[in-house]
Sequence to fold (354 residues):
Amino acid sequence: MSTPPTAEEFADRLFRSALGAMEIFSVHLGDRLGWYRALAVHGPATPAELAARAGGHERYAREWLEQQAACGILAVGGDGRFALPPGTAEVLTDESSLAYLAPLARMLTASAAQMPALLEAYRHGGGVGWTAFGADMRESQAEMNRPWYERALPAALAGVGDLDAVLRRPGARIADVGCGGGWSSIALARAYPEATVEGVDVDAPSVELAARNAKEAGLGDEGRLAFRHGDATLLGEGGYDAVFAFECLHDMPRPVETLVAVRRALRTGGTAVVMDEATAEAFTAPAGDVERLLYGFSLLVCLPDGMAHRPSAGTGTVMRPDTLRRYAAEAGFRDVEILPIEDFGFWRFYRLHA
Fold:
């Protein structure tokens, strides 16, 4: 057990946390206004130049630029122009980079906007559903996960030989349950060109977003990739070689029912894969940074989303391996295997054996 902080030490911690929160909100402003991208593309700018390039009010641009420089996010030259350093630009503007984190600010801002509803849920039960968080939440999650699906997922799956062989079967059918913005489905369709991929999601705007993303990715008209609005029961019985659930099972109010539908959807010899948060095996306190991050997501987003429906398992983001094993067993799977996929963001891959 660590030594409890003094009042001064804890006050300092909260003070620094407040600074971090303010930086997050300032990043959200710069991201949504397009100011970071303008600096990345066109180079250093004065407040007037930035407002002329990207729009916005010059007085607000000056305050934001000075605040960003005061925080060390931007650099300021002797000519009074503010510059976005290359490494920072990658994190804030490069949508293909595994270091891309600008959507995190958007996600946390969307959570903060729902604080009155969250307080109500915490006081009286109930929850705050995914639709209530709006487009900022929906799109930020899709954008933050996109680089991992596009750049890391194909190699990760190829590294598991027997799984890769299933996915490469000529005419293989793959389902992606809880597909969200569709980037996981798009990555699967690209990695396995002889397969057909079907994404399903209970959130209708997410299905529409996925279809738009697929079309922009050049996969909307091939017939190998489709999206449907609904839950896993849409998949029917015995029609799929593989069913995936990427970072969604912990959000579902009835995860066992979903896994039952997944098991029924598999053909003989098919495989089910769940990618979910790489939590610790058991609760410990104090915990490491990843665990703290996951609990934060759970408090603000995932648990309230799951609790917005009745009945609800109330899983939350911190779904530990034993919890998934229990859900899988209740759904009729005989075993759960942790796949040898490492260094894949904050996630862990499980294969469920029917």
Observations:
- Residues 238 and 267 are 4 Å apart (CA to CA).
- Residues 7-92 form a domain with the Arc Repressor Mutant, subunit A fold (CATH 1.10.10.10).
